[in-house]
Specification:
The chain has 13 helices and 6 strands. Helix content is about 50%, strand content about 10%.
Length: about 350
């Protein structure tokens, strides 16, 4: 039985990045540009495992406090990432962590350059998923100062855009990444699925979909025919893919189920892991109730979103598909099928 190859150690990754930068400088690249691209690639490597599992999504490296959280939610609404990208956000509270990581490995950046962002600033880094040959740096230095986008390719400063305000720069993030990272040719099914579901997850995080930046021509819920689906099938495919992550695993789903029932004053059985694994009927019904609430909330969000052909709930296939999807979600969260005796209602 074969196993996956072990992940490279952080030390190996850092060394490889700086070896790449050295080769670029020896070939004639400006040392400042080559070194900055190396630092940006290391920032991406700090979240390498997560990014590999979630391409096309923005990962905050750290969020400290309400102000940083609100900034992140605003950014989610405005940024539109192509499907084959890695992207991270550095926050003011994270500003010193990258340098600490470099110091721990006793690595030096050639030249006298400083890190390509200021303290107390936000930085978004976007790159291709493979060799990070091209990396985009979005610098948001202060709430009132100028902001800009710089693009590096193979150690060279390829392009830059300057904006008068952070707001102008944020608004540009619905289009500029597509100039440099848009998939070539006809999109694959995998790219369509990844892009649609990444967009929807952003909306779940913000608890709204309206006004979220999107290239809707590539979304299978806006255009179900992209995957040969009906509008009804596209809705439930999306829920099956995204609700388990929104519920955050069995422990959290049980906790929120009990909290919700308590807040609503419901006299229902307290749910426990043992009860679910032993298929206690009352506890399994309560857990499916939590799944149904989440599905209904997400369906309502989709129904309110302009441009989505929401299906007729009176369609005779609606209830069977809802039932089937709820059971699939239950199985993904719990690890075994929902008991047949539990009714989805």
């Amino acid at each position: 039985m074969s196993s996956s190859p072990p992940e490279d150690s952080p030390e190996d990754l850092y060394l490889r990045v700086f070896e790449k930068a050295s080769v670029r400088k020896e070939s004639g690249c400006d040392p400042l540009s080559a070194d900055w691209q190396a630092i940006l690639e290391i920032a991406l490597n700090l979240a390498r495992s997560h990014l590999r599992r979630n391409p096309g999504r923005l990962l905050p490296l750290q969020i400290g406090g309400d102000d940083e959280w609100e900034f992140y939610l605003d950014l989610l609404k405005k940024i539109d990432l192509p499907p084959d990208t890695f992207a991270v956000m550095s926050t003011p509270s994270f500003s010193d962590n990258l340098l600490d990581a470099l110091d721990d490995q006793e690595l030096e950046v050639a030249g006298d350059s400083e890190v390509p962002w200021e303290k107390n600033s936000y930085l978004v880094i976007i790159s291709d998923c493979d060799e990070h040959l091209r990396i985009m740096q979005v610098s948001l230095p202060s709430a009132s100062g100028s902001a800009g986008i710089d693009v590096y390719e193979d150690g060279k400063h390829l392009a830059d855009y300057t904006y008068n305000t952070i707001e102008e720069c944020l608004n540009a993030l619905a289009k500029v990444p597509w100039v440099f990272f848009s998939p070539r040719g006809i999109w694959t099914e995998k790219q369509i699925i990844r892009y649609t579901e990444s967009w929807f997850v952003k909306g779940v995080d913000r608890e709204e979909l309206g006004g979220m930046a999107i290239h809707s021509d590539h979304s299978y819920v806006h255009h179900p025919d992209l995957l040969g689906l009906t509008a009804l099938e596209s809705m439930f495919r999306l829920l099956e893919a995204t609700v388990p992550a929104a519920l955050e695993g069995l422990d959290t789903t049980i906790e929120t189920t009990n909290d919700l029932n308590r807040d609503l004053g419901r006299e229902e059985t307290v749910v426990s892991i043992d009860g679910i694994l032993l298929e206690d009927p009352a506890q399994c019904r309560a857990l499916t109730g939590r799944i149904i609430v989440e599905m209904d909330q997400q369906l309502e969000a989709l129904e309110r979103t302009e441009g989505i052909p929401f299906p007729d709930r009176s369609d005779r296939e609606y209830d069977p598909l809802f039932d089937r999807t709820a059971r699939k979600i239950y199985e993904k969260i719990v690890g075994h099928p929902c008991p047949a005796s539990v009714k989805i209602e």
